[in-house]
Design brief:
With 339 residues, the protein is α/β, with parallel strands linked by helices. 33% of the residues lie in helices and 15% in strands. Helix 1 packs antiparallel against helix 7 and helix 8 packs parallel to helix 10. This is Aminotransferase class V.
């Protein structure tokens, strides 16, 4: 058992795979276990999940720097970004990072039948080229190797008229974020936000008009009175984009996200990046300011696995991710395995 930032985690030594699956705190796991037990015994009631949904929504809003009424819920990032992709005008030009996670790029590429074109560019060129495109869609932190997008350059591009769509799945939870200026900011629960899979959110700028293609009962102004019949009566804010919540995902997120949002995220970043950059330095790599490190060394993935460490194979290398429950001992174990 480990204690980190006031919470307990039943995370094993050498777990360096948060970028794939985050490990919940005991408080999160216990909340989900209670909800499952109530479901199993017939004691659960659908209306009782509204509060966890609202708490998690507010937590995500705080983590990305917006008001909660700008946040829509979903089950995964790609359907949320898909609403944005479906809303761009015919013939729009979209810029994405080369090797971008496909939940960001595929929704736009799927619009090719409307003349939408998607161009890939190296991540370090995205900011400079953004003004030449109608939309830029990029992860704040790249899944494959942890590189960080130039948010200030993207903010400037947005001011000049380019729509900016961001995925914070590999950033929110360890990186302080103030992204109220972006057109859309989407993120999933089950990595750095330490919640069950099945919950995702998207903050939408008031100037971005979206059609709620998947509108259902939970998108209603009063969800419990919009379960039958017409006319259309959607919420007046971003809830009009909601899809029906995956209950247990939000039960966990309702504990995890408000807790994360209440932490000193500069201290969290310092901890996570400090471990990652310490590992990088010992490997002869320059500091990168990211909590994710990918080692491009032959046999690295196998050696880490043989030593009992949990990492991921990404982009032809071994990806290590350092979150708030990791320690110097995890760094040492990884280095010992690779030496």
């Amino acid at each position: 058992m480990r204690t980190a930032f006031g919470q307990q985690f039943d995370v094993p030594d050498g777990y360096l795979n948060t970028a794939s699956i985050g490990t919940p705190s005991m408080a999160v796991a216990e909340a989900v276990e209670r909800a499952v037990r109530e479901w199993r015994t017939g004691a659960g009631h659908a209306e009782e999940f509204d509060e966890p949904v609202a708490l998690a929504r507010r937590g995500f809003a705080e983590l990305v720097g917006v008001e909660a009424d700008r946040v829509a819920i979903g089950a995964a990032v790609s359907p949320l970004i898909g609403m944005v992709a479906a809303s761009v005008p015919d013939g729009s030009r979209v810029l994405v990072a080369a090797g971008e996670f496909t939940s960001v790029s595929f929704p736009f590429a799927a619009q090719a039948g409307r003349g939408v074109t998607v161009t890939e560019a190296p991540l370090d060129e995205i900011g400079a080229r953004a003004a030449d495109f109608d939309v830029v869609a990029v992860s704040v932190v790249q899944s494959a190797d942890g590189r960080i997008a130039d948010l200030e350059a993207l903010r400037c591009a947005r001011a000049s008229g380019t729509r900016v769509v961001l995925d914070v799945t590999q950033a929110a939870g360890w990186m302080p974020l103030e992204l109220g200026w972006a057109d859309a900011v989407a993120g999933a629960a089950y990595k750095w936000l330490l919640s069950p899979r099945g919950a995702a959110w998207m903050a939408v700028h008031p100037e971005l008009e979206l059609v709620p293609h998947a509108a259902g009962w939970y998108a209603g102004a009063d969800p419990w009175s919009s379960v039958y019949g017409l006319p259309l009566r959607l919420a007046a804010d971003a809830r009009s984009l909601d899809t029906s919540p995956v209950w247990f995902g939000h039960v966990g997120a309702a504990v995890a996200l408000p807790w994360l949002a209440g932490l000193d995220l500069e201290a969290v970043r310092s901890h996570c990046v400090g471990l990652a950059d310490s590992f990088r330095a010992a490997m002869g790599l320059e500091p990168a300011g990211s909590a994710i490190v990918t080692v491009q060394r032959r046999g690295a993935l196998g050696r880490l696995a043989e030593a009992g460490l949990v990492v991921a194979g990404r982009a032809g290398g071994a990806r290590l991710s350092f979150h708030l429950y990791n320690t110097d001992a995890d760094v040492t174990a990884a280095l010992d395995a690779l030496r």
